[in-house]
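ingest -> fold -> write
write: protein_1
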Amino acid sequence: MLVVEVLSNFSYFERIGNMASRYNYSLTIRNDYLGLTKEIKGMTRSEVELKANDQLRKWDEREKRGRLKEAINDLKEEAEFQTEEAQSLINEYKNILNATLKVNDKLNWNSLKDKTTFNKTAPTLEVFNDLLRVPKESKFLEMLIKSKKASRIEKEEAAKGQYLEALDLYNSEKAEYERLQQEKNSTVDLLKQEFEQGHGEAIEKYIHIVLERSSYPDGYEKDYDVMFEPISGTIIINYNLPSKESTPRVTEYKYVASRKDINVVEMKVKEFDAFYENVLYQICLRTIHEVFESVYIEQVKTVVFNGWVEGVDSKTGNDFKSCILSCQASKEEFMSYNLSRVEPKECYRNLKGLVAGPLAQLAPVRPILDINRDDKRFVESKEVINGIDASTNLATIDWADFEHLVRELFSKIFSKDGAEVKVTQASRDGGVDAIAFDPDPIRGGKFIIQAKRYNMVVPVSAVRDLYGTMVSEGASKGILVTTSYYGKDSREFAKDKPITLIDGSNLVYMFNEYGHQVSIELKK
C-alpha cells in the first residue's frame, strides 16, 4: 500500500528552515508493505511532487513483485523469480538511451495545470435535519400537544443555522481551493509565455521539469543542476551520475540442490566495468537528447553535459566528488544522429567528449563549461531594519543604508517562498541594487530590485533603465522602489511589462505590514 503523509488540506510539504540549504521543501513518503520510508527533498514544491510520484510508482511495482514472490514456496522457483528480476533490471540499464527515444520529451503545458475538482460534498439541510432528529410536521399531533410544534420549530431553526454555517465554510473552502488552483494555472501560462519569449530563467525551469519527468530504472536517484548561458545559447548541465556501488551487477540467483541454498552470481570485474561505462555514456546522450527534443525555441543552440560522481577514496578514506566526463553538442549536429543505432561510447567520442581513461576508474577531467552562480557584484548584507523606528525618515537616510533596508524588507517578503535576496556592490554595476532568486520552477525566477531614494518624481528613464537591466540579466521580473512617486509616463511604460512600481506611500505600508514603523517626508 502506498502512503503519503498529508500535512494539511492544501499542502503536504514541510519547509526546510536553513536558507543556505539547496533544498527548500521536503515530503515524507512511505510504503507499509515494503517497510520503507523516504524523505523527498527539492528546491520547489513541484520538484518534490514529481520525485515523490516517481518513487511511489516504483515502490508500487516492487510491492507487486514482492507479493508475487510471497506466493512462491519452492527455493528453485524463488531463484528463478529473483534471476528474472535481476536480468530485467540490468536490461533496463542497458536500454537507458533507447527508452527515451520512444517518448515525446516536449513538455505538454496542460499536463502541468491542476484540473482537479473540489472533492468535498456540499452540505444539505436534510443531513442536519437527520442529525438533530428534526421531526416531520404533524398538524394533528401539534394541535393536540402544543409543545410539539414549538419543539419542532426550535430544532428546525437549529438545523438550519448549522446548515448555513456549514454551507458558508464549504463555499469559503471551495473558493480558496479554486483561487489557489487558478493561481497555479496562471503561473503555468506565464512560464509558457516567458519560455517562448526566450527568458533565461524560464528556459532553465522548463528543462528542469523535463529532466525531472524522465523516468529511470528503479533505484536510480536523479540529481542535477541546470544553467542557461544566453549569449552563446548554451545549456550547462551538471549531472550526478550513479556510483559503481549503486549500479546493479547481479546477473543470476542460482539454486544449489546439494545445499538447498541460493548463490548470488555477479558480473566479473571487467564485464561490470564495461557495463558501468556504457550506462554513463547512455545517461549523457539521453540527457542531451531530452533537452534538444523538448526545447522548441531557437534560443537553445548547444548543450554542455558534465557528469559527476561521488564516493570515498579507498586510499585516503576521504569523500570525493569528481567530474569524469564532459561533452558539448550542438543541436544541429546532434539531432541529425540516429541514436537508436549508435554505440554510446563511439557516439560520445564523435562529439569530442572528454574522458581521462576508462570511466570505471573515475579519473577526473576539467568541465568544458561549469555552472557558476556566484556573482562578484554581491556583497555581504548589512542589517539596518532593527535600527529604525517611527522617527526614521526614509527620504533622508544614507542611500546605501536605504538599499540594504529595501533588501531586508524584500527578504522578509520572499522568504515564505524559499527565495533569497542579495545586495550588489555600491558601484551599482549593471544598474542592479539587489537580486532575488526564487527557486520555484513555475512561478519563480530572478527578480531585479532597484531602490531609488528620491525627493522628486522618478523620471521615466529610471523605469526604462530597469527594463533594460532585466533583459540583460535574463530576469523574469523587475521591482522599482522609491521614497517619492511616479509620473504618468513611468506608469504607462510599465503597465504591459513584468515591472512593479512601489512608491513612497506603498513602501511605508509594506514596512508597517512587517512590523516596522517608518515615515517619509520629502524635501521641498
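write: protein_2
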Amino acid sequence: MTDRWTRAEERFRQREADRRYRRNDQAWEDYDDDTNVIPRYTDEGPDEPLPAERSRRAAPQRAEHGEPRRGRASSAERGEGAPPRRSRGDGLGGGRAGGGPARSGRPRTQRGGSRGEERRSERQRSAPSRGRRSRAASRKAAERKKRRRYLWLIGAMFVVLFVGAAVFAGLKLAKMFGAPEDFAGPAGPLVVVQVHPGDTSNQIADAMLQKGVVASSQAFFQAAVRNTNMNAVQPGYYAIPSHSPAAQAVTALLGKDSRVGNLVVSEGRQLHDQQDVNTGSRKDGIYRKIADASCVGTGPNKKCIAYDQLDAAGSGADLAALGVPSWAEQRVRDVPDRSRQLEGLIAAGTWDFDPSGTPQQILQQLVSASARSYESTGLLQSGGETKLNPYQALIAASLVEREALPQDMGKVARVIVNRLEVNQPLQFDSTVNYALDRTEVATTDTDRAKRTPWNTYAMPGLPATPISAPSLNALRAVENPEPGTWLYFVTIDKQGTTLFTESYSEHLRNIEKARQSGILDSGR
C-alpha cells in the first residue's frame, strides 16, 4: 500500500512539473531570434523514466540474472521459517520484534525517493531559466561579434583614407618642390592659342597646355613670371609651336609675328576689292583683309584662307551659319546679288578671329561680333522718330559713312530722313559707284542713268543693302539725326567742305562751286 501511494505521489509531481514547465514547440518555431545559435535545452524528455521507475524496471531484470533485490525481501528470500510480517494491529512486542527490519527499510526507501523527487523538481524548475539565460547569452555573443566586425571595418576605412591622404600630400609636395614637367624640344608644328580679355598668366598657361604647346602649365607659368613683357600680351589669337620648352613658348608668344587673325576694317570699306579710276590702284575689300589676316606660318609652311573661298562662303544660303542677326535675316534673304548679302554686316573696327577655322566659321565669328557691336548703340530701340527699322538704319548709316566727314554726319543723316519722308530720291553718287568695279568721287551721266538695286538716282528710297561698313558714329547719327530741314548737300572741295540747304536753287549754286574746285571732274 505504501509503495502504491509513493508511486501515485511521484506521478502527481511529474504531471505538475510537466504542466508548469511544458515546452511549447510551436512557440519555438515562431520565435524570431537574430542569432544563429540554438540554445541548449536541459529538460528531461517525457519518455525518459524517473529514477524510482528505473529502479522498479531494473528489479525484475536483476532477479532474472540472480541479482538480489533492493528494498524489501520476498518471503522466499526471508526463508521458509520466517514468520510473516505483522500488521499494525499486532502486539507491541511482537510488532517490534518481528517487523523491525521491514519497518526500518520502508522509511529509508521513502526518504531516498523524496530526495530524488526534489532533485528532479529542482532540475525541472531551473531548466526554463537556464534556457532563457542560454538564449540571452547567445544574443549578446552575436552582438559582440557584430560590433567587433564593425570596428574592424571602420578601422580599415580610416587606414585607407590615411594612406590615400599621405600619398596625395606626397605627390603635391613632389610637384611643389620638384621641377615641373617640360618638353626638351625640338618644337612641333604651329597651333593657334587664344588669349581672352583679362586672362592671367595661369589662364594662359592652361590654354597652352590644352593646345599641346607645353608639357605642364606650371612650367609655362614659371617661365612667364620671369619675363616682364608678359604684361604687354593683348587679347587675340597667337600661333605658337607645339611641344615647345616653356621658356621658348613664352618667347614665341611675345614675338611680333606670333599674333594671327587680327583684322582691321576701316570705316566705309566694302566687302569686295575696288579699283580707283584715277590711280588704277586696288583698294582691298574686307574679304581681302580677312584672307591676309588668316595666314599662319611662314615660307612653304604658310597657310591662308583664300579670297575666293571667303566670297563663296559669304554667298551661302544658310544665313544662321553665317551669323546673320534675326533683325536683318529677311532683308538679307531678299538681296538680289547673293555675293553682296553680307555687305555692311561686318562693322568697321578691330576684330580677332580664329584663323584655324573654316571660311564659314570665320565669317560667322565676325558677323556675330559686329551685330553685338551695332546693337550696343541702341539700334533695336531706335526708329521712333526716323521710322527706320534696324536694317534700314544700317543702310542709312553706310550712306552717311561714305558721304560725310565725322563733323557732318548728323546733318547728312537728317537729309536722308527728310528726303525719305517726302519720297524724294536720295541721288547719292556713292550709291552709283557701289555697283561699279572702277570708282571715283565724281560720276558720269551714263553711270547715274544705269538702273541698279543700289543706284539712288534711278529710284527713290534706300539701296537694297548697305554699301559699306559703317562706323558706330555713323549709326548713332542715323539713330539721332541733327534737327534741321535740309534736303540738299554737296562737297565743294578736296578738303571735304560740305554745304547744306533746303533750297534747290541754292543747291545748284553750291554745285557750281564744286565744279570750279575741280572735285567733280571725272577721270573716265
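write: annotation protein_2
Strands lie at 190-195, 236-241, 259-260, 262-265, 274-276, 282-283, 349-352, 438-439, 488-491, 498-501.
The mean pLDDT is 82.
pipeline exit 0
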